[in-house]
Amino acid sequence: MLKKRKSSKDRVSTEINAGSMADIAFLLLIFFLVTTTIEVDKGILVRLPPWSDEPPITAKLAKKNILSVLVNANNQLLVRGEEMDVENLKDKVIEFITNPQSNPEYPDTPNDAIVSLQNDRGTNYKTYLTVYNELQSAYMELRNGESSKLFGTLFDNLTIDQKKKVIEKYPMKLSEADPTSYGEENAE
Amino acid sequence: MSKFSSKRGKDEPAISTASLPDIIFMLLFFFMMVTVLRDATVKVEVIVPEATELTKLEKKSLVNYIYIGKPKDRADQIKYGTAPRIQLGDKFATPGEIPLFIEQHRVTVPEVQRPQITSSLRVDGNVTMGIVYDVKEELRKAGQLKINYSARPKVD
């Protein structure tokens, strides 16, 4: 009995079974495939107005319906003739659209509100995008508020029909005027 | 006690390397899968600004890229100057060449998907708006109205 046991220990040990290695490898492969997110391009989606050769129709719009936002070549902001920081722009836009105090200087309904954005050829792209982002985020906040009131969820989770309803309430009317060219430009 | 001493005297078994190729292949496939093939090397310096209201661009084949920034290489800087330039595909371009570039991309896309084509503007934050405006005007003329200002998510 004892002798037999010893002989089995003495044998040259067998190689490690590598048959399951492939399974482990595949498991790892699948794990990485599932968990890795390929870097995607993200950005602010914008729809440009169609090109037309005729000069734009300068319809008479009530002054109280327009919030003019000017950005100059020094990246300073002028909102309705007042200097402003970018941080305060969002609150100002929301106040302008909703008009909670029924200010006669502001539009009667959110549907009438038009934001007019004009920049200079010398404005930094970074500043322009920050301003644009603030304007869009103001509308997004209003739409989110409206959609949680109506449907109890955020705007992004709505169906297309529900989205239409919310957009009807807060349509984003953003007009971009041709840029001025007072400032220094570093292109050519 | 004798059990241990007897084992130590023996030859150690060689670890099988039969699965090593498998692992290497696995790594290879992994990197092949995650690597995004860029169709053009970016010759201009682009650090896109930060923003919060971001949308993902889904289909890569429906996106064309327009880069605007300062030339990166010293040789290009001597040739074209250090002012911001437009890059279409793999070469520098003027705003006037944009409609042709858009059209060349458009013909590669099936007709039903053409309205979904997006132009991604990858513009450096320090570029002034003049050149960006010129590009936007050309895009409007070319009928390419869906554009995307490429941006990084904001980190607080």
Structural summary, described in words:
The complex is a heterodimer of chains A (188) and B (156). With 188 residues, chain A is of the alpha/beta class. Chain A has five helices and six strands, in the order ααββββαβααβ. Chain A has a domain of 114 residues. Helix content of chain A is 39%, strand content 14%. The model of chain A has no long low-confidence stretch (mean pLDDT 81). In chain B, a hairpin with a 2-residue loop joins strand 5 and strand 6. With 156 residues, chain B is of the alpha/beta class. In chain B, strands 1, 4, 5, 6, 7 and 8 form a six-stranded mixed β-sheet that branches. In chain B, strands 2-9 form a two-stranded parallel ribbon.
Key traits:
heterodimer; A: 188 residues; alpha/beta; five-stranded mixed β-sheet; 5 helices; 6 strands; 39% helix; elongated; B: 156 residues; Nucleotidyltransferase, domain 5; 2 domains; six-stranded mixed β-sheet; two-stranded parallel ribbon; 9 strands; 33% helix
Report helical residue fraction of chain B. 25-40%
Order of helices and strands of chain B: HHEEEEHEEHEHEE
* Number of H/I helices of chain A: 5
State the low-pLDDT regions of chain A, or none: none
Residues in β-strands, percent of chain B? 15-25%
Shape of chain A: elongated
Helix content of chain A: 25-40%
Number of helices of chain B: 5
Largest sheet of chain A: 5 strands, mixed
| Category from helices, strands and their pairing of chain A | alpha/beta
